[in-house]
Amino acid sequence: MLSTYQYPTFDYRASPDQTSSSVVRHPVIVVGAGPVGLAAAIDLAQAGIPVVVLDDDNTVSVGSRGLCYAKRTLEVLDRLGVGDDTVAKGVSWNVGRTFLNEDEVFNFNLTPEAGFKRPGMVNLQQYYLEEYEVKRARQLAHLDLRYKNKVISVAQEGQGASLQIETPDGVYALQTDWLIVADGARSNIRRMLGLEIDGKVFKDRFLIADVVMKADFPAERWFWFDPPFHKNQSVLLHREADNVYRIDFQLGWQADPEEEKKPENVIPRIKAMLGDDREFDLEWVSVYTFQCRRMTEFKHGRILFAGDAAHQVSPFGARGANSGIQDADNLAWKLKLVLEGKAPESLLNTYSEERGFAADENIMNSTRSTDFITPKSKTSLTFRNAVLALAKDHAFARSLVNSGRLSVATYLTQSSLNTPDTEVFAGNMVPGAAIDDAPLQLNGQDTWLSDITGNEFIALIYCQNVDAISPAQRLELANLALQKIAVKVVIISPTAAKEDDELPVYVDVAGRFAERFDSQDQTTYLLRPDQHVTARWRSINTAFISAAVAKATMNTH
To answer: HSE (CB half, 13 Å, CA atoms) of 321?
Structure first.
C-alpha cells in the first residue's frame, strides 16, 4: 500500500465468450493492460476496430515504475484522449542539471524555444497513466477490457492465433486474427512461443526509492556523479506527483538486492543526501539491473510484440515506456489498414523494421549512458572523470557528458515507406521525422498542429495567398478525401482568410510552422496517421500525394 495512492480494483466479469457453444474469434486481442497494451487497444478502438484486452491482474502497476513521458509520447497520449489528465497530474519539466561532487558542470533545456503544446517531459507515476488509460478504454464501445483473464497457452495458426485463458470461472478458448503481445519484460507469451530476446545485462545495480516529502526543489532532473553523500557512485533525483521524489542510488554489482531494499538500509542513504532535518516518508523501494535487449523480429506470423515484451533498456534516458507507447503508435494505423483490406499484410513487416530500428537506437544510447555512468575499466573511469572536470568550463566537453540521453522520437529516415525528397529543404522535418508542433488559429480560435493531425493521412499545404488555389486544384484536393485511403487537406497560411468550409485555413500565428517546416508558398507535406512526415514537395500536386500514400501503405503494385 502507498500513502499517496489508493489502488483501484477492477472487477472480474464473465464474458459471453466463456459459455459460447463454439470458440469465438476476434479481429484483435491484446495481452497486457499496461501502458503499451492499453495504448494500442485504445488507438484501434478509436478507429472502430473491435479489440479484446486480456490481463491476469485486477489493478494497475505496483509502484511508480515508468515515470518520465517525453513530448513526443505526450502528443501520442493527446491523440488517445489521456494527454490532458497526464499533464494536469504530472510534474512538467524541461531543465536537467548534472553535478560532479557538489558542483554543477552541465545543464540542458529540452525545449529552449517556445511554441510547443507540451513540455519536454512530464513526470508521473505509471499507475496514474494506467488509470487514465483504463478510464478512456471504458469509454470506447469497441474495446472489451477483461481482468483476471490469464493466457495459459498460445499457438500460431495460419491466419491468426488460438489461446487458452484461465479465469475465476475456469478455462476458455479464443481465436484471433491478430495478437498483440504487451505483457512486459518477463513476457509469458514470448516464453510459450519459445522466442528469444538477445542483448546484454550490465553488472551493476541501482536502488529506486520513492520518498514523500515537502521540499522546494525545482521541477528539474538532477544527476550527481560522485556526490559527497554517496561517494564513488551516482545518484538521480526526479520530482513526481503528490510530493513524491524518485531517488536512484547506484549500488554496484556486489550489492544484495533484498538487503538493500530494507528500510533500515535505505533510510540512512536518503538522510545522508537530504540531511537529518528533512522529514520524509519512504513510499516504495525497488532494486533493478540494467538490461539492453531486444527480440530479433517483433512480428512472428500474426503475433506482434510491443513494449518491454519486445525490447528492454536501462531506465536512464526514459526510453522504456516512451518507446513502448511509440511502438503502439506505429503499429495501430498499419494494422487498421490491413484489417480494413486497404493495405497488404506485408505493411506490418514495416512495424518490425521501423520499431526495430528505434529499439537499436534506444539500446545504443542506453548502452552509452550506462558505460558513462558506470565505467567498466580504469581507462573508462579516467576518461569519464576528465570529461566531467572539463565540462564546467569548456563547451566541447559538455557534449560528451552522458547521464542518460533522454527519449526523443526516432527519425525513420531509412523507412521504405518514405518518398525521398526531389527538392531542397532545410530543417528537421525530413521524411521519417515526427512532426514538430506549432501554434495555429482557426477562425480566431487557438489550436495546435499536433491537435489537428494524426489518425489519418494529412496533406499540410502552406499558402501565402489561399485565393491563389485555383478551382481545379480545389476540386483535386477535395477528391483526395474520396480515395481508397482518404487524405485530409489542411491549409496553413501566414494570414487569416475568409471562412471556407471546403478548405479551412489555419493561421500560422507566430510563424513557427513556416520556420520549423521550411515553408514557402505551396510547400506540401504528407503526414502518416502517426504524425510522421512521409513525403514533401515545393508545389501542390495531388498525383504526387496519391503516389506517396500508395508507397506509404505498400499499395504500389
So the answer is: 28
CB-CB contact of 16 with 225 (8 Å)? no
Q: Across the chain, what does the average pLDDT equal? A: 93
Per the CB < 8 A criterion, the answer to whether 46 and 455 are in contact is yes
* Residues 513/440, Cβ–Cβ less than 8 Å: yes
Nearest by Cα to 319 from 296, 293, 300 = 293
Cell numbers at residue 35, please? 501502458
Q: What is the pLDDT of residues 379-410, one digit of tens each?
A: 888 898 899 889 888 888 888 888 776 767 89
Cα–Cα distance, 353 to 372 (Å, whole number):
29
Task: Give, as one character, the DSSP assignment of residue 234.
Answer: E
- What's the CA dihedral at 475, 480, 481, 487 to 10 degrees? -140
For the range 343-349, what are the long-range contacts, defined as Cβ-Cβ under 8 Å and sequence gap of 24 or more?
343/485, 343/553, 343/554, 343/555, 344/554, 344/555, 346/554, 347/553, 347/554, 348/299, 348/304, 349/299
Asked whether the predicted pLDDT for residue 72 surpasses 80, the reply is yes
- Has residue 7 got a pLDDT over 90? yes
Number of DSSP helices (H) and strands (E) in the chain, helices first: 14, 26
**Once rounded to an integer, what is the mean pLDDT over residues 60-73?**
88
What pLDDT, on a 0 to 100 scale, did the predictor assign at position 1? 76
The 8 Å CB, 24+ separation contacts for 422-429 are: 422/537, 423/537, 423/538, 425/518, 425/536, 426/518, 427/515, 427/516, 427/517, 427/518, 428/516, 429/516, 429/517, 429/518, 429/525, 429/533, 429/536
Question: Domains in the chain and their CATH numbers?
Answer: 16-88+123-196+293-365 (3.50.50.60), 439-552 (3.40.30.10)
